[in-house]
Design brief:
The structure holds 2 protein chains of 2 kinds. By secondary structure, chain A is mainly α. Chain A has one domain (about 1-215). Chain A has 9 helices and no strands. The longest helix of chain A has 30 residues, at about 85-115. Chain A is elongated and about 55 Å long. Chain A starts with a helix and ends with a helix. Chain B is α/β, with parallel strands linked by helices. Chain B has a single domain (about 30-50, about 60-185), classed as 3-Layer(aba) Sandwich (Rossmann fold). Chain B is globular and about 50 Å long. The relative contact order of chain B is 0.21. Chain B contains 6 helices and 8 strands, in the order E-E-E-H-E-E-H-H-H-E-H-E-E-H. The chains are: A mainly alpha, B alpha/beta. The interface of A and B includes residues 15, 71, 74 and 80 of A.
């Protein structure tokens, strides 16, 4: 299982692996928003929590279709399904690899993005914390969507349509944590709900993903 | 341990292709599947490998004893030959892939990225994966595609050594692998009769 993780990370980092795609998208978004909305710090500070979370969500979405599509095309997915590793573990490892190459870099770069959007200083801690708690759910839910659409040609659009509604609770509570944090209010309720969504998704969705993957491989 | 397939029926895309397929393999035996294109060789192999459920009948060997080699080799083009093999060796929990490199004549290519291999070299790498699985039954789908005659002979030897070591092989191929001892099963005689339209429920009529 460790070898599957290292293989996926290595593939992501080598040429054409798609590492940095989400990161670049996030960076572009944070640079473009002040140009589009105007440079008034008050306006930007008001919309920064939402923009930062929507950006993270869309950046995650960008690389979802690569999770299984490449392995499906070259036949590795069939071979992995007959290998001694349970498919639930394969799916979890894939989600983890996706988070390490997409979610984690977004978390790490988010303070810089906050700076570009005049995020109030009290909110930085909550931005990092909410993204750390929320992005694993984005990867796990996205892996489920990728498992549903594996094998479809140009399944990217369908994948987005399937996954985006499932992302909405994470987006609402994640952005709520940051905006309440920016106003100095208590964040415990949205934070607990965000953590709950992630815990539930990580615990349950790998089984669903493995099941639909088995059906799709038939 | 042997493979026993009894009264197996399998379908592809909802259409029954084969029915009543029965055969058995003991340790050291190989069975070659023959039949025209589209007769259901790949479907049968995928069913035996546990990738799709059978419509009826059973396969009497757990999927844990089977190594499946499909048309696609499952090679990652940005990894080197050795990295590709090392990955599968780690997945199957067998530590050594060095012997597989030698036996499939890949030693000189070990450090090269798989995207720079020729089609035949890729196939040899895909087949070398079988050697690191350590599983008794090899289920092979057209293993000789794009191999030259020397490589076909090389692979024939690899299969024969696997059989001598007590392994089994189930091979769909049109080319003579140089295994005169292998039995041949022609799948054309197991062709499924198409279900009569309107005989069953609505679902069946629309399959």
């Amino acid at each position: 299982m460790i070898s599957l993780l290292t293989r996926d990370l290595r593939l992501a980092l080598r040429a054409g692996g798609g590492f940095g795609l989400g990161l670049a998208f996030y960076l572009i978004l944070a640079v473009l928003v002040p140009l589009g909305v105007g440079p008034a710090p008050a306006t930007l500070a008001l919309i920064a929590p939402g923009i930062l979370w929507v950006g993270a969500l869309l950046a995650c979405l960008l690389s979802l279709d690569r999770i299984f599509a490449l392995d499906f095309e070259d036949g590795s997915l069939d071979l992995l399904a007959t290998a001694p590793v349970p498919l639930e573990a394969v799916v979890s490892i894939k989600a983890l690899a996706h988070w390490l190459t997409t979610g984690l870099p977004l978390v790490l770069i988010s303070p810089v993005m906050g700076l570009l959007l005049f995020l109030p200083s009290e909110a930085y801690l909550w931005l990092i914390l909410s993204l750390t708690l929320g992005t694993p759910a984005l990867s796990v839910i996205g892996t489920f969507g990728a498992a549903l659409t594996v094998g479809l040609k140009r399944g990217g659009l369908l994948l987005s349509l399937l996954v985006l509604p499932l992302y909405i609770p994470t987006l609402i509570f994640g952005a709520e944590v940051v905006s309440r944090g920016a106003q100095g209010l208590s964040v415990s309720t949205p934070l607990a709900l965000l953590a709950g969504i992630t815990a539930g998704a990580v615990a349950l969705l790998p089984f669903a993903s493995a099941l639909v993957l088995r059906i799709n491989l038939r | 341990m042997g493979l026993r397939v009894t009264d197996l029926s399998c379908a592809r895309g909802g259409l029954p292709l084969l029915e009543g397929v029965s055969f058995s393999l003991e340790a050291g035996q190989a069975l070659v599947l023959r039949g025209p294109n589209g007769c259901g060789k790949t479907t049968l192999l995928r069913t035996v490998a546990g990738l799709q459920p059978a419509l009826a009948g059973q396969v009497d060997l757990p999927p844990e004893a089977i190594a499946y080699a499909a048309h696609a080799d499952g090679i990652k083009s940005t990894l080197s030959v050795a990295e590709n093999l090392a990955f599968w060796a780690a997945i199957y929990g067998t530590s050594s892939f060095e012997e597989a490199l030698d036996r499939m004549n890949l030693r000189a290519l070990a450090g090269r990225a798989a995207q720079n291999l020729s089609a035949g070299q890729k196939r040899r790498l895909g087949l070398a994966r079988l050697l690191v699985t350590g599983r008794p039954l090899w289920v092979l789908d057209e293993p000789t595609v794009s191999l030259d005659t020397a490589s076909v002979a090389l692979f024939g030897d690899v299969v024969r050594r696997h059989l001598q070591a007590g392994g089994m092989a189930l091979i769909a191929t049109h080319i003579d692998l140089g295994l005169p001892e292998a039995e041949i099963l022609d799948l054309a005689s197991y062709k499924a009769r198409l279900p009569e339209i309107g005989a069953g429920t609505f679902d069946e009529a629309f399959l």
